[in-house]
Amino acid sequence: MTQMTLIAILLGTVAAGVGSVWLAALLGFAMLARYTQHMLSLAAGALMATAFMNLLPEAFESPVDAHQLFAMLLAGLVFFFLLDKAELWHHGHEHHHGEGHAHETAHGHAHLSHASAAAHAGGHHHHHPAPRSGGWAVLAGDSVHAFGDGILIASAFMADMRLGLVTSLAVLAHEVPHHIGDLVVLRHTSGTQRAALVKVSLAGTVTALGGLVGYSLLTRLQDYLPYFLVLASSSFIYVALADLIPQLQKRLGLRETVTQVVWLLAGIGLVTLVVSGLSHGH
User: Fold this and answer.
1) Nearest residue to 174 via CA among 13, 31, 47
2) Residue partners of 23: CB distance under 8 A and separation at least 6
3) How many CB atoms lie within 10 A of CB 75?
4) How many Cβ atoms from other residues are within 10 Å of residue 79's Cβ?
5) Which are the contacts of 90, defined by CB distance < 8 A and separation ≥ 6?
6) Helix (H, G, I), strand (E, B), or coil: what is residue 90?
7) What does 4-43 look like in DSSP terms, one character per residue?
8) Which pLDDT score is estimated for 248?
9) In the prediction, which pLDDT does 111 show?
């Protein structure tokens, strides 16, 4: 069972870390970046559903006192807020500040706010190319974030196989729009699409390293698994509410608003269907 869990962690982390890069390349390089806004809505729904309907219930079924878990949830939200402020998790600026936005993209530690660069790529195309050294800042930020994702995915698989699969899917969904932005930046700093794809894919493999480290830690710290699940939840909730939802909160027509809501509900429904299907199969 332990070996199966390790294999599942490796598959889940590779799918989330590298699979999201290739899916982003398919969308971005195929000039389908207009779907990025839909991916943001889908990812927000998937992250919230995974946190509130799967990770948190699993954590609260443990013998750990509920007050301690809620305290951990609060501490996690504050922690990710501080990382956001310190620009270690991602840079905190939207990419619609005119002339400076390409420079900010290159030097920000990457996360989902890159998605706004991709969403507006059709109109801007980064006319002010980023410095060549900026690409390494993006890759460094990607690697740190991917390592954290790997630990969160490992904690979910250690709790339950189905929970691990749903968590991997949620991470994959929210990494796609993020990686579209990364590929736009790296294409400028690397010169070719292939080089950009290889570099971002290599950064994505760090997710598997995070999974291995998480697995090693949790086999020794099994009693702390509920805390890791709550920490994963706080990460997902923070990303959804502080990063994704604000990018969708803009004045739109009725049709566009309905489309956003439909994709948000689709993200929730997708997680629900996956969990339901796996439960029946199990």
Assistant:
1) 47
2) 172, 176, 179
3) 14
4) 16
5) 84, 108, 109, 110, 111, 112, 113, 114, 141, 145, 243
6) coil
7) HHHHHHHHHHHIIIIIHHHHHHHHHHTT-GGGHHHHHHHH
8) 79
9) 40
Q: What span, in angstroms and rounded, lies between the C-alpha atoms of 65 and 75? A: 16
Query: Residue written as tokens 């079924």?
Result: 61
Question: Exposed, middle or buried: residue 125 (CB in 10 Å: 0-12, 13-18, 19+)?
Answer: exposed
Spans in the chain with pLDDT lower than 50: 90-133
* Domain encompassing residue 264: 2-281
Q: Which residues of 222-256 are buried (b: 16+ CB within 10 A; e: fewer)?
A: eeebbbbbbbbbbbbbbbbeebbeebbeeeeeeee
DSSP 239: I
pLDDT digits (tens, 9 = 90+) for 213-262: 999 998 888 888 999 999 989 988 998 898 888 877 777 788 888 888 89
Domains of the chain: total: 1
98 CB-near residues (< 8 Å, 6+ apart)? none
Pair of tokens at residue 69: 């878990």
The residue written with tokens 């195309």 in the block is 125
Who's near 218: CB < 8 A, 6+ residues apart? 154, 155, 158, 224, 225, 228
Tokens 């993209």 -> residue:
105
Report yes or no: 59 and 229 within 8 Å, Cβ to Cβ: yes
